[in-house]
């Protein structure tokens, strides 16, 4: 069912009756005091009019997805998206539009096509696409299929000298499981109500870190060795099964994306489950299966090519050195066009900035938008920004510790806060598909909850009313939350995000709901305006520095 946006006067009248709501705010000195959170209904009305009746959000989204296309981190398309978004933001009259360089994002890569054909025991086209950062076939190649899982060093020795000219099918045959839930989902009162429950942690015990590090290093070393082994043995390609059924190709990266010093391995593809299973059943019947492959894929630049975050601002007035931020990640995976993940979030955040500029907003604090790179590989763009401008820890002195990914490292010293840390107010993120905003996760920041409840009042008539106390993770607001700064992600209708489009080749414009994006842009613009104009910065929850705890 499509969501229709209404500007009925009766709905606004309901909002007008509850513009000032009581809330408890945590003061900088740690004292609680009662006050009323004001809502600027005149500005909200102007924002709604601009967002609902003069929207440009779909024009932005269409260009990102159907003109530029998928935007793999550090790919030529990602760099084109950086340039185009900057030009667009500049054309709307925003200030300080620039590209902020992010190092350490690895190699650029792109692919043109992937053609897979079964030649025997019968002729049939097969649907498969390559993992990012894996090589192409350098033309058309053929090979016999072998079902083989290489999972430990002993497996490599066992099959040495036996795999030249073979195409390895490396996943198990998987039985089809019919779905029991609808593909398309919108929140209702029941599902929103269930989100209100906070599960209290049972204890604070930590897993065995040394065992986790050992497994990580062993897995990384084996994968490096396996890639070289497949090259040395003359394997034609390897193929795995998509993690989703019903003809959906869901995949991410492979190969050696961080450095050209690492072996890239052989062409590495993912095949739809129905075709993969056909091949596996033929092998079980002892039939000889031959495939023809033509995969056009290539690395596009050297290891030291930086990526970029696109940045722009609406400059503040008397509190201009304090900052309210909006953000979404511009990068995507390569098989669809990255519409829901996350051109939708980018288009909404850009539209929120356009709306504020169009309605003549003059915020007290500076409102800054960031379109991040490298989110899919580990929040690299947002983590770079936080570390460079807000807070960071010393680099580990131990080389082995430094070689670990950030999520496995121990705190290397107390958090070092920059001047920008104290001037920072809040960050708002959008990255759960193209569904309308239903509310916001408070990240256990209880002092922020009544503030958000007040700001949502004028949007109850378009479905946004819920403030959830619990945390949500896995996207760029976490980079801010980890260092004790207020960072929030909105609650959205999930639509078919986690059933059809997330990291799949179906992540295209067809799965986007335009009315939802208009609503989301209005909510975001209003949140940015109110955060930029309230007397105090947003309250912060207690931050415990693990390095000194």
N- and C-termini, Cα separation? 50 Å
Helical region count? 16
- Biggest beta sheet attributes: 8 strands, mixed
**What characteristic shape results from the CA principal axes?**
globular
Reading side by side through the largest sheet, how are the strands ordered?
3-12-14-13-17-20-18-19
Structural class, from helix and strand content? Answer: alpha/beta
The residue fraction in helices comes out at 25-40%
Q: Low-confidence parts, pLDDT < 50 over ≥5 residues?
A: 1-34
**Cα gyration radius (Å):** 25 Å
Count of beta strands:
20
Overall average residue pLDDT: 91
Strand content: 15-25%
Note down, in words, how this protein is organized.
The protein has 549 residues and is α/β, with parallel strands linked by helices. The protein has 16 helices and 20 strands. An 8-stranded mixed β-sheet has the order 3-12-14-13-17-20-18-19. An 8-stranded mixed β-sheet has the order 5-4-11-7-8-9-10-6, covered by helices on one side. Helix 13 links the parallel strand 18 and strand 19. Helix 2 packs antiparallel against helix 16, helix 3 crosses helix 9 and helix 9 crosses helix 16. The protein is globular and about 75 Å long. The protein starts with 8 loop residues before the first helix and ends in a 16-residue tail after the last helix. The N terminus is likely disordered.
């Amino acid at each position: 069912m499509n969501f229709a946006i209404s500007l009925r006067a009766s709905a606004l009248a309901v909002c007008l009756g509850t513009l000032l709501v009581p809330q408890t705010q945590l003061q900088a000195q740690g004292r609680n005091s009662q006050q009323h959170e004001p809502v600027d209904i005149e500005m909200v009305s102007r924002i709604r009019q601009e967002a609902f009746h003069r929207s440009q959000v779909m024009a932005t989204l269409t260009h990102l997805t159907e003109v530029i296309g998928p935007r793999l981190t550090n790919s030529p398309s990602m760099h084109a998206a950086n340039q185009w978004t900057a030009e667009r933001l500049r054309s709307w009259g925003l200030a300080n539009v620039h590209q902020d360089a992010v190092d350490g994002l690895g190699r650029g890569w792109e692919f043109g096509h992937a053609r897979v054909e079964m030649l025997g025991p019968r002729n049939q086209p097969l649907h498969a696409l390559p993992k990012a950062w894996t090589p192409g076939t350098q033309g058309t190649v053929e090979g016999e299929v072998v079902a083989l899982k290489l999972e430990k060093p002993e497996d490599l020795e066992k099959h040495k000298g036996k795999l030249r000219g073979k195409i390895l099918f490396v996943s198990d045959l998987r039985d089809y499981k019919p779905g029991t839930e609808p593909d398309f989902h919108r929140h209702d009162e029941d599902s929103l109500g269930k989100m209100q429950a906070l599960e209290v942690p049972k204890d604070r015990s930590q897993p065995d870190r040394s065992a986790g590090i050992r497994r990580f290093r062993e897995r990384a070393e084996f994968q490096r060795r396996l890639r070289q082994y497949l090259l040395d043995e003359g394997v034609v390609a390897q193929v795995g099964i998509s993690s989703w059924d019903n003809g959906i190709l869901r995949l991410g990266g492979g190969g050696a994306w961080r450095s050209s010093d690492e072996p890239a391995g052989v062409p590495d593809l993912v095949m739809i489950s129905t075709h993969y299973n056909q091949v596996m059943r033929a092998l079980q019947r002892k039939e000889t299966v031959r495939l023809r492959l033509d995969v056009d894929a290539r690395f596009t630049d050297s290891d030291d090519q930086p990526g970029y975050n696109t940045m722009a601002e609406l400059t503040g007035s008397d509190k201009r050195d304090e900052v309210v931020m909006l953000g979404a990640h511009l990068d995507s995976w390569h098989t669809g066009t990255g519409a829901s993940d996350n051109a939708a979030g980018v288009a909404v955040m850009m539209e929120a900035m356009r709306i504020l500029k169009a309605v003549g907003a003059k915020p007290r604090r500076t409102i800054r938008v960031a379109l991040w790179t490298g989110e899919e590989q580990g929040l690299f763009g947002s983590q770079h920004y936080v570390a460079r401008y807000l807070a960071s820890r010393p680099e580990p002195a131990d080389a082995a510790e430094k070689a670990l990914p950030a999520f496995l490292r121990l705190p290397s010293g107390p958090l070092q806060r920059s001047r920008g840390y104290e001037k920072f107010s809040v960050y708002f993120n959008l990255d759960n598909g193209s569904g309308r905003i239903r509310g916001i996760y408070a990240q256990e920041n209880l002092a922020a909850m009544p503030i958000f409840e007040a700001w949502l009042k004028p949007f109850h008539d378009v479905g946004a009313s819920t403030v959830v106390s619990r945390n949500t993770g896995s996207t760029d607001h976490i980079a801010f939350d980890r260092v004790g700064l207020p960072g929030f992600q909105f609650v959205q209708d999930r639509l078919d995000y986690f059933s059809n489009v997330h990291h799949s080749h179906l992540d295209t414009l067809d799965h986007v709901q335009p009315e939802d994006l208009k609503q989301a842009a209005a909510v975001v613009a209003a949140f940015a305006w109110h955060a930029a104009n309230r007397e105090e910065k947003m309250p912060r929850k207690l931050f415990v520095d693990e390095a000194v705890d």
